[in-house]
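Appendix B. Raw example, untouched.
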Amino acid sequence: MENLVAFAALVLVAQQLDISNAATTTAAAAYFWLRVAHFVVYVANIPFGRTLTFAGSWAAQLCILFQILSV
C-alpha cells in the first residue's frame, strides 16, 4: 500500500501526457504481478522474497518515471 499512491500518480500523469508504449505497459503489468508476488511471499514468510519483490515494484515505477521524464 505504501507505494500504490506513487504508482497511481505516475500512471495518471503518463496517461494525461499520452505516454503509452511497450515500456510503460510492461512496467505497469510487472508492478501488478510483483505486488501480488509480494503478498504471497509475505504470507509464506520467505526471508528475502519480500525485499526482492518490493524492489522490483520500485524498479517498475522508475521505468514509468523515466518514460515521463524522457518526453
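End of appendix B.
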